[in-house]
Automatic annotation (TrEMBL), chain A:
PANTHER family in the cross-refs: ABC TRANSPORTER PERMEASE PROTEIN (PTHR30193), DIACETYLCHITOBIOSE UPTAKE SYSTEM PERMEASE PROTEIN NGCF (PTHR30193:SF41)
Name of the protein in its database record: Sugar ABC transporter permease
Source organism of the structure: Labedella populi
Composition skew (Low complexity), residue ranges: 1-16
Major location category of this protein: membrane
Automatic annotation (TrEMBL), chain C:
Name of protein: Extracellular solute-binding protein
PANTHER family associated with the record: ARABINOSE-BINDING PROTEIN-RELATED, POLYGALACTURONAN_RHAMNOGALACTURONAN-BINDING PROTEIN YTCQ
Signal peptide span: 1-24
Highest taxon of source: Bacteria
High-level lineage: Bacteria, Bacillati, Actinomycetota, Actinomycetes, Micrococcales
Keyword field contains Membrane: yes
Keywords, alphabetical: Cell membrane, Lipoprotein, Membrane, Palmitate, Signal
Pfam family, one: SBP_bac_1
SUPFAM superfamilies in the cross-refs: Periplasmic binding protein-like II (SSF53850)
């Protein structure tokens, strides 16, 4: 594989190939090489990478790590009230042990996880499949209207999830939707998307609409990083465009696909804006439809930060575990032969 | 050497394009995908031309004539507050995206091109940021920024959004792909300082990828709701997302200002579309060609 | 080591002073600056009148989202010690929650004794929580009324229902005339609406008994209301979709929603969402359970409260009093904000001509005043938000199930969730 992807120029052989987070070794890395002379120069070379990554680390510590630690701390606290709980000093924050966690893992939460997994099962494969298809078609020399298509398919990414849901909400409501207008005119009995049975498809559609372009561009960018003389060679060998796509391009972008898959999976578990915006339009969505909606309800409707924090921590741990398992599974297949 | 290679690639690409027949199926699939993406856009454009009465009474895709009335009303709303929101969004997204892209590029470059103790750990820890839902993070971020007296200010929205694990992740990929180790080594042999190598050599090579990151960050900040919602009390500091949400949720006893919200939503997306169009040519640049310019 | 720490602390403190100074105003010389979080449209225009007349106390309206999250935002700012406004527009049902979180200042010492006389007893008790403290000044109220399409009623030969039995008959007649038509909808999304209906039937979901809270949701008045609506939905003569959706707006426009059980502020919503139907609607008193003892509920309505973080409590209380009792301010609120001011007498003076949308009905405000007089007493508890989100979830299920028994189950669930929450937080529940 490596041999065929190696370009004639000086570019790194694994160009544009995203790697798993724990796969940190780059070919021919730079750094504190032993052949460098010791002394001042050496010390600079050792410290330089740390100096250069310092801004990211500091910002991370201040605005992500510290709030995360704070969230964990909050998850072990709860508000304790006495009597009527009115007037100043009636509320105090007390150590809660694991009670928030025990309370968080209720049937409501598990049901919301189940719904979101179904949602992800519908959305992620569809979205990535289409994103890959579109990226390959954009990259294909036989497609036309690629500039237009690329821009338009990417366009929904510019639309915030809340606004996208508002727009699709209008399109889902029979009384104001052009779809239902058309089906009514044709005398067809169209299914109600905003019903309990179909709502998950309606939500997946909004996710697909907003996300397919983004993933397409990521995959397309990684396709573009490969010098085209590889394909040229394949063409000279008599490969068709479809064969080139399946045998050369897909394996090249597979790691990119893995990572977009991972990030899509994470985004799926954190789905929030779409169901929250659609909820007022239908009886089919509860205030705890997705795990993050439950977090939001606890934090912003019930003002129960402890419960919200505990649920958040659980979501993060589950996400981490699932990401890990996901990477383990695909890594064996994707990167296995390289080791 | 690089120049020859690249010329060769371009020459062969041109020649092959002329020999391959266009495929109607391939083009057709792309067009169908594009049309699907356009449906809600067509709807919102049509809806933005309607008066409040027409919005709920006429056929939804039929345009009307009130687009300028709606825009005028939107502009008139509380002495042009909407445009202040747009300006705020531009500041948050513009400054935030540039800062974020630079920080991410630096981090991504270091992670891709240096070996140093603790690198794997640093990268893994940075990536865990992706796992934490932003909804809950906003409240602790507020409580921490309040300690510095920075809430209810531009800083409160700008600072937390500079760090983006996803952008760092992408930057690392682009740096690994686009910056040849030989070039860095050569510059180093000539005695260039590391920061200079990054700024003068690596950054231009990574540029096409960085434009993508810039775009993603710009969109992420522009569309963020929860962080500015929690951080800001002063409505003249609101970004357009938080401002429009206020027009939609005025309590049960006042109607949602749908016509303003729809017109506002359309206007608020235009700068992003414009940005996509302007930066589009950067996406076309072959990453391998970057070495030639350097 | 210690000196370094102290140095950092001092720097942070100085920075904090420099950066937060803008909203505090305070100072010995310059005018007092007050921040006012509100969501009601056009409240800034009324505040302008105050600012012109009171150069020493300048109020800045910071318009917020009208949803629940603004409360969390406020409580977060209070917890952090900075960033909260001086004044906040608070719905009546949020007051116990806010008081319980120590967010609202007791302004009883800043008010004249006669301020209470401006308001109906029921409204005043919801800002005092039955104590000697005063946590807010009532701003507007939302006596519930019944609205219907006069033209369609005439066409079908129907009269406005005066009792709930008649309402059921009219609902059946309307739906029979055209299956796409409904006299109304049971909205699982509007807990405040259902609360008003239960209030009319005699429910009061919370009660204070000495040092303990009582929760009385799953009692006969609320059960009666739930069973009634469950029956109508089960029969199919009443729609089961939420209100305030684009679809519902379209229904108001095209005449498929023939009636609306709403409140006095309905003209503003109707003119915004169904502008083309101006002059076609008529307001009537709510249908009654007992025609001999007329009663109604309240939906919406809010107060102006002073937060515990303000440094200018007296000035803030002075403004809140002016906004809600001064005849000029009250008239301006009624006029530009389109609300029904809580100050009874001042409101009666200000509200003489019917809203433009109801130009066909001269006695609009007579009907409203009658309704306002018959609002049944109701006590809110410290966890209204929990109860309201339980309403959303449980009644959404019931409305989908479309059975009367599911509606009754939903009421029982609301009771259970509310009591559990209170007990878990440590409140004493009797």
């Amino acid at each position: 594989m490596t041999a065929t992807t190696r370009p004639s120029g000086s570019t790194s052989p694994r160009t544009g190939v995203p790697r798993a987070p724990d796969d940190s070794l780059e070919p021919r890395e730079l750094g504190a090489a032993p052949r460098r002379p010791a002394g001042h120069r050496f010390r600079t070379r050792v410290l330089t990478p740390y100096a250069m990554i310092a801004p990211a680390i500091l910002l991370f510590l201040a605005f992500m790590a510290a709030p995360i630690v704070y969230t964990v701390a909050l998850s072990f606290q709860r508000v304790q009230v006495q009597g009527l709980g009115l007037g100043s000093g009636a509320r105090k924050t007390v150590f809660a042990g694991f009670s928030n966690y025990v309370a968080a893992l209720d049937a409501e939460f598990l049901a919301s996880v189940g719904r979101v997994l179904l949602y992800g099962l519908i959305l992620v494969p569809t979205m990535l499949g289409l994103a890959l298809l579109f990226a390959l078609l954009l990259d294909s020399k036989r497609s036309r209207a690629t500039r237009f298509s690329r821009l338009v398919i990417f366009l929904p990414y510019a639309v915030p999830g809340v606004i996208a849901s508002l727009l699709w909400g209008f399109l889902y409501l029979p009384a104001v939707s052009p779809f239902y207008f058309v089906t009514d005119a044709l005398g067809l009995d169209a299914p109600t998307i905003l019903s309990s049975d179909l709502i998950v498809f309606g939500l997946a559609n909004i996710g697909l609409w907003g996300g397919v372009g983004f993933n397409m561009v990521v995959i397309y960018t990684s396709l573009k990083a490969v010098p085209s003389d590889i394909y040229e060679a394949a063409r000279l060998d008599g490969c068709s465009e479809i064969q080139i796509a399946l045998r050369i391009k897909v394996p090249i972008v597979f790691p990119a696909l893995v990572m977009t898959g991972l990030f899509s999976l994470i985004a799926t578990l954190q789905v929030f804006a779409e169901p929250t915006t659609l909820r007022p339009l239908t009886n089919a969505l509860s205030t705890t439809w997705s795990p993050l909606m439950k977090v939001y309800r606890d934090a912003f409707t019930r003002d129960d930060l402890g419960a919200a924090a505990a649920t958040s921590v659980i979501i993060a741990i589950v996400t981490l575990a699932m990401s890990f398992i996901f990477l383990r599974i695909v890594q064996k297949r994707a990167f296995g032969q390289e080791d | 050497m690089t120049t020859t290679a690249s010329t060769h690639i371009r020459a062969s690409a041109t020649s092959s394009a002329t020999t391959l027949r266009p495929s109607p199926i391939a083009t057709g699939i792309l067009i169908i995908g594009a049309l699907y993406c356009l449906i809600p856009v067509v709807w919102v454009v049509a809806a933005s031309t309607k008066s409040a009465g027409e919005l709920f009474s006429s056929f939804t895709l039929l345009p009307s004539t009130h687009v300028f009335d709606n825009l005028a009303q939107l502009s008139a709303y509380r002495d042009g507050l909407f445009w202040r929101w747009m300006l705020n969004s531009a500041i948050y997204a513009g400054v935030g995206a540039i800062a974020s892209t630079w920080v991410s590029a630096l981090a991504g470059y270091v992670l891709a091109k240096f070996a140093f103790p603790g690198k794997a750990a640093v990268f893994s820890i940075l990536l865990t940021g992706v796992l934490v839902p932003g909804v809950i993070l906003a409240i602790p971020q507020y409580l921490l920024l309040a300690q510095l007296g920075l809430t209810n200010s531009y800083w409160a929205v700008l600072l937390p959004q500079i760090i983006s694990p996803y952008a760092i992740y992408l930057a690392r990929i682009y740096a690994a792909a686009a910056v040849p180790t030989d070039v860095v080594e050569a510059a180093r042999t000539e005695g260039a300082k590391e920061f200079a190598i990054f700024n003068r050599i690596a950054l231009p090579m990574m540029l096409p990828g960085l434009v993508t990151i810039l775009l993603f960050q710009f969109v992420a900040v522009w569309n963020n709701f929860m962080l500015p919602y929690i951080m800001l009390g002063d409505d003249t500091l609101f970004p357009v997302t938080v401002g429009l949400s206020g027009l939609l949720n005025q309590g049960a006893s006042a109607p949602s200002m749908y016509t303003l919200v729809i017109a506002g939503a359309l206007v608020s997306v235009l700068p992003l579309v414009l940005l996509f169009l302007l930066l589009q040519r950067f996406w076309r640049v072959d990453l391998a060609a970057g070495a030639v310019k350097a | 080591m210690h000196s370094i720490k102290r140095g950092i602390a001092a720097t942070v403190a100085v920075a904090a002073l420099a950066l937060t100074g803008c909203s505090a105003g305070g100072g010995d010389d310059g005018p007092v600056g007050l921040d006012f979080w509100a969501w009601a449209p056009n409240v800034d225009k009324v505040v302008e009148i105050w600012n012109e007349q009171n150069p020493d106390i300048q109020v800045t309206v910071q318009k917020q989202d009208g949803g629940d999250p603004v409360i969390t935002k406020l409580l977060t700012a209070l917890k952090a010690g900075s960033g909260a406004p001086d004044l906040i527009q608070a719905e009546y049902q949020k007051i116990p929650t806010l008081v319980s979180s120590d967010a609202l200042a007791d302004i009883s010492g800043d008010l004249d004794a006669d301020v209470a006389d401006e308001f109906a007893d029921g409204l005043w008790s919801s800002v005092t929580l039955g104590s000697d403290a005063v946590y807010a000044v009532p701003q507007d109220s939302g006596p519930m009324m019944f609205y219907y399409r006069e033209d369609i009623f005439e066409e079908l030969g129907l009269e406005a229902p005066t009792t709930w039995d008649e309402y059921a008959e009219v609902a059946a007649a309307v739906h029979a005339s055209d299956p796409s038509r409904y006299l109304g909808t049971f909205s699982a999304n509007d807990a405040g609406w259902f609360t008003g209906l239960a209030q009319q039937a005699g429910a009061s979901w919370w009660s204070i008994d000495g040092d303990a809270w009582g929760v009385d949701i799953d009692e006969s008045p609320t059960q009666q209301v739930a069973e009634y609506w469950g029956g109508l939905v089960e029969e199919g003569v009443i729609d089961n979709k939420p209100m305030y959706t684009p679809e519902w707006n379209a229904g108001l426009n095209d005449g498929s929603q023939v009636g609306w059980l709403s409140a006095v502020w309905a003209p503003g919503v109707l003119s915004g969402n169904a502008a083309d139907t101006a002059g076609l609607w008529r307001a009537a008193p709510m249908p009654q359970w007992d025609a001999d003892a007329p009663a109604t509920g309240a939906w919406g309505g809010s107060s102006t409260a002073v937060t515990t973080q303000t440094e200018n409590q007296a000035a803030a209380a002075e403004f809140a009093t002016w906004l809600n009792t001064d005849p000029e301010a009250v008239a301006a609120m009624a006029d530009v904000m389109g609300i029904y001011p809580a100050a009874t007498d001042a409101a009666a003076e200000a509200l003489t001509t019917s809203p433009e949308f109801f130009s066909n009905q001269e006695d609009f405000y007579d009907v409203a005043a009658e309704a306002a007089d018959t609002i049944a007493p109701f006590t809110y508890g410290p966890n209204v938000n929990v109860t309201f989100s339980a309403y959303n979830d449980e009644f959404a299920k019931a409305a989908e199930a479309k059975t009367s028994s599911a509606f009754l189950d939903a009421v029982a669930e609301m009771q259970q969730i509310t009591v559990d929450d209170l007990e878990n937080t440590g409140f004493t529940v009797e």
